[in-house]
Amino acid sequence: MNLNHASTRNDARGFSLVEMMITLSMLAVIMLMLYATLFGAQNAATETTRRAYARNSGREAIQLIERDLRMAGSGWGTLPVQISNNGAAGTLGAITPGPASGQSDSLRMLGTFGSHSVLSTAMANAAATTTVDSIGGFNAGDFFVITNGIVAHLFNVTSVNTGTRQLAHATSSSWNVAGGHAQFPAAPGYRVGTDVYEVTQIAYRVDSLNYRRRTLVRQENGGIPQIVAYGVDSLKIWYRMRDGSITRSPGQIIDIREIVPILYTRSGKSARLDSTWTYVHPRSF
């Protein structure tokens, strides 16, 4: 009798160890490619974000410099402002260019950003109290410039008397010490109706020591520097003179026609250099 026996051999063959290793290797390569693509896209997005931030930061910084420059010298133009440097005579210009020999320039300016009034009583000499029509906006610690259009003088307010509308400038401030303030008008001094401007001294410079990255800072009246922009490479200030020449080292400010601040920034891993700039013509020049 012929008996048919079902085969007990399993023809279905599984993966060999070599095949599994090849498959896993291919999967690993594919995963690495996917991760590389993903991280590459993330890095590109991060780079773009950093670059956009640097550009926006630079643009905002230049706009701030432009605003300050437009108001430099408002009320007295290019007249040298007579000051007392702790009793020694000196002057401040509406614009004081900083060093132009290094990588970065600095810039100081003196401008009107606040109140304006006029004398209600003649100011006979530099020691006399300044009495004005309105003390609105003037506070102790402020600076003011008094000018008749021929000469100009700067003082530091030490106290304000609201009843008498007087701006005191005692010698407790080094800006008011006797001995400075040259070329004060002869008697009767500054006459009734003379302009009195509340002013601010502003300075811009690149700080490479006090922050992790090179930083553009802005300083008012010698106070604490405020950060304006990070990732700064350098600040260049160019001056277009009335004779058409361009320089970073101007002579007399009366010869300046336009000011061109250029802020260079670096961003991202590539440290790509970018720049933002503008042309500024101060209103009073």
UniProtKB/TrEMBL annotation:
Stretches that traverse the bilayer: 20-41
Keywords, sorted A to Z: Membrane, Transmembrane, Transmembrane helix
Highest taxon above the source species: Bacteria
One Pfam family in the UniProt entry: N_methyl
Protein name according to UniProt: Prepilin-type N-terminal cleavage/methylation domain-containing protein
Source species: Eiseniibacteriota bacterium
High-level lineage: Bacteria, Candidatus Eiseniibacteriota
